[in-house]
């Protein structure tokens, strides 16, 4: 059996014994019960599974576990909670930026990755950053307003 893969997950040191090519998304959902990141396409084409690895937004459905060895992972659960939402989550709540909600964790994580690089992006930069993430409900304009609000916060 291979050695455990160790990483920091939402500020806590963790280790997992699993096949190195196991998708990170499966580990987050099945081993840690972190179900905010969603399985949409499983092909790196929709962004529903987006999480941060060392502050970079990644598609966790196509990120093998071996790639996060020694790295720092942040999921939506690491940004706040329903009782105590973080600033980006608060902006999405205030703008009611969700319909079915399936894409929203990924949208928030993509926004978080942008704001960690650029604290005050303009709307064009936000549109560009969110481009890899799809919303099948057509909630894009509310999502954009929420991200703009978060960038101003
Ligand atoms: S589920 Fe990962 S990109 Fe669609
Ligand atoms: S709110 Fe339904 S997919 Fe975006």
Can you walk through the features of this model?
The chain has 153 residues and is of the alpha+beta class. 33% of the residues lie in helices and 14% in strands. It has helices at 24-31, 87-94, 104-117, 123-130, 140-152; strands at 5-9, 12-16, 50-53, 56-59, 72-74. It has a five-stranded mixed sheet with strand order 2-1-5-3-4, sandwiched between helices. A hairpin with a 2-residue loop joins β1 and β2. α3 runs parallel beside α5. The longest helix is centred in the last third of the chain and has 14 residues, at 104-117. The mean pLDDT is 97. Residues 98-104, 135-137, 139 line the site of one FE2/S2 (inorganic) cluster. One FE2/S2 (inorganic) cluster is lined by residues 39-42, 44-49, 59, 61.
Short description:
The chain has 153 residues and is α+β, with helices and mostly antiparallel strands. It contains 5 helices and 5 strands.
Keywords, separated by commas or semicolons:
33% helix; alpha+beta; single chain; 153 residues; globular; binds FE2/S2 (inorganic) cluster
Strand and helix order: EEHEEEHHHH
Report on the biggest sheet.
Answer: 5 strands, mixed
Radius of gyration: 15 Å
Question: Would you tell me the overall average pLDDT?
Answer: 97
Give the helix level as a range of percent.
25-40%
Q: What sort of overall outline do the alpha carbons produce when their principal axes are compared? A: globular
List ligands, each type once: FE2/S2 (inorganic) cluster
User: Helical stretch count?
Assistant: 5
Name the strands of the widest sheet in spatial order. 2-1-5-3-4
Give the structural class. Answer: alpha+beta
Low-confidence stretches: none
The proportion of strand residues reads 5-15%
Would you report the number of β strands? 5
N-to-C span? 48 Å
């Amino acid at each position: 059996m291979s050695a455990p893969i160790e990483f920091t997950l939402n500020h806590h040191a963790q280790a997992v014994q699993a096949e190195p090519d196991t998708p990170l998304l499966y580990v987050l959902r099945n081993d840690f019960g972190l179900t905010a990141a969603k399985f949409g396409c499983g092909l790196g084409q929709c962004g529903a599974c987006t999480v941060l690895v060392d502050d970079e937004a990644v598609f966790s459905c196509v990120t093998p576990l071996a790639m996060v060895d020694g790295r720092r992972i942040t999921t939506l659960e690491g940004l706040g909670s329903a009782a105590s939402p973080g600033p980006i989550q608060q902006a999405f709540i205030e703008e009611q930026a969700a319909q079915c909600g399936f894409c929203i964790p990924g949208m928030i994580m993509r926004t978080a990755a942008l704001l960690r690089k650029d604290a005050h992006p303009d709307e064009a930069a936000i549109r560009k950053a969110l481009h890899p993430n799809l919303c099948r409900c057509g909630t894009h304009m509310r999502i954009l307003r929420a991200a703009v609000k978060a960038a101003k916060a």
